[in-house]
Each structure stands twice: as C-alpha cells, then as structure tokens.
Amino acid sequence: MFKAQSGICDEPNLHGLTLFCHVMTDDVDVMRRKIARIPSIIDELSDRFSEAMLNGFIAIGSEYWDILYPEHRPEGFGSFPELREGHRDAPEQVFDLLINLRSDRYDANYLAARTLNEWLGYDIEIAEHIHSFRYLDGRDLMGFVDAPDNPRGLRRRNVALIDKQQSDLFEHSSYLFVQKFKHDLKRWDYLGIERQEQVLGRDKVTSEKLPEADIIGVTHASKTRLLDKNEQPIPLLRQNMAWGDTREQGMLAMYFTCQPKAVVNWLKQRYQEDDSNQYDPLLDYTQATINSAFFVPSRAFLALSVERSAC
C-alpha cells in the first residue's frame, strides 16, 4: 500500500479546495481516530469519482501537534519562520488542521469537503475556506508559468517525502509550508511585458530563463532557484494554484519538503536582503496574507497513533 497521503506528490488538477481549521474539542483520542480515518474517506470518494482524479490530505499544525501526538514530534518541525524586513512582511497564522482536496471536478471537491466536514462535525471550526484552480497551462495569474523548475516523476517523492534513513516512524510523511498570496494585478499589468520579464527573469511565453546579458538587476528566478549558497539542491515540491474572483486574486502556495530547514532558508532568501541589498522583486507586487506551517503524517503513522491510544 502506498503509505503517503494522496495529494502530496500527485500531478496537478483543475480544481482545489483548502480548509484551514481550528479544533474545538479537548478529546484528543476522538480527534486521533477521526483524523486517521480521513485518508480512507478520500480514497472511497476517489473511487466514486474515478474520472475526476480526486486526491487530498490532512495536515497537522505546528502547535496542535504536541497536543495530538505529544510523544513523537518530527525533527525540525517548527512554526512558520519570521519573514519581516522593510515593506516585506509574512505574518504567521496558527491553525490546528489543514485539509486539502484536488480534482478535475469542482463538484467532487465540494462533496468531499462536505463529507469530511460532517465526519469531523462540531469538533472543528473552519476558519478559512479557499477555492483554487488551475489557470491556463499551469500559469500564475501574473501570466508566467508557475514553478517551471519543479521536480518531475519519481523526483517529486524524493524531495517531498521523508525516507526511512531519516526516520522510520515518519517515513512517507512531509513537512508543509503554506502561503496565500494576494496579487496587485493592476500595478503588475501596468509594468508591461518587458518589465515583467525583467522582474521574473524569464520569457513570459516560453518560461525560458533570460540570457544573463539581458537581465538588469536581481530577478525572481535567481532568488527562488532550487540551489542553496553551497550550490546544493534544495528539496522542494511546489503544489501551487491560483485563487480569486474579479475583485481580488492571488496564489495559494504549498511547499512540501523532507528537509524543512532548507526551505526556511529558501523563504528567507526571498524576503531578506542579501549582501547587495537585493530581495525577490516579485514581492513588490504580491503580499502573503496567510503563512502557516504543518506536518502531513503518513497513513501508517496515523493508523499507529490510534492503535497506541487503544492500548
């Protein structure tokens, strides 16, 4: 049996639905049992809507983890990092649970969310409810291909999931950082294509990196490259989707990793000025309004936690 929850490494879908929740009960045993059942409920709904490619997962917030599983905290699992410098600010919001659903049918996501909400009942309160969608050929609403350097194939599992050498207990689990960005598209559109390409460092149509000779200043591409200061790969899988309507729009960014420290440094690299007083220029046109850290346990860990509670 595939031990990781679905939705972590799955290929992109057309529609997404994400619920940020607070737990309203003190009955920890009940919540362990209910949470452990969720991957199976999603599997059953996925079989029902097989053509929709329904997938999803439940993740545990950094603070709630110690209440739910006090004896087993993943190494390096902490709160969302402080990202504040100049006009760039990404304040942390604390949530107990995150439920993410994706499929190629809007109605399948809706039914799955209702089913899970009924299962959890009054034990949770939904604080944020975000519908997201695939825009054009996998582009952000700013018009550029999103995360063109995302790992492909089996490499997705290698960077997103904890392996047995790291931890027997948390094998097939993943660390998750979430940011909900709100774009200022009026200011962005005013730049024009040539200036937008200078900010991103990529061709808007092909997504190819611009030649170094054509680049003026620092770019988003250089600040988000998946190599650290020592030129070592950063294990990061992005599962981002657009959200919004005609009034406000943005991107719901999900960063999965097996090495949270590397992704924290990657985030800081975007927000904090380097030795040349440069930061990610794209942050001048978008603001992260939700910033949270979670852990996505494997199916095996969720099942084991219930067994231990029954002993």
From TrEMBL:
Its cofactor is heme b. Residues 138-299 form the Dyp-type peroxidase C-terminal domain. Keywords: Iron, Metal-binding, Oxidoreductase, Peroxidase. Residues 46-134 form the Dyp-type peroxidase N-terminal domain. GO terms for molecular function: peroxidase activity. InterPro entries: Dimeric_a/b-barrel, Dyp_perox_C, Dyp_perox_N, Dyp_peroxidase. SUPFAM superfamilies: Dimeric alpha+beta barrel. Belongs to the DyP-type peroxidase family. This is Dyp-type peroxidase family protein. It comes from Idiomarina baltica OS145. The lineage of its organism: Bacteria, Pseudomonadati, Pseudomonadota, Gammaproteobacteria, Alteromonadales.
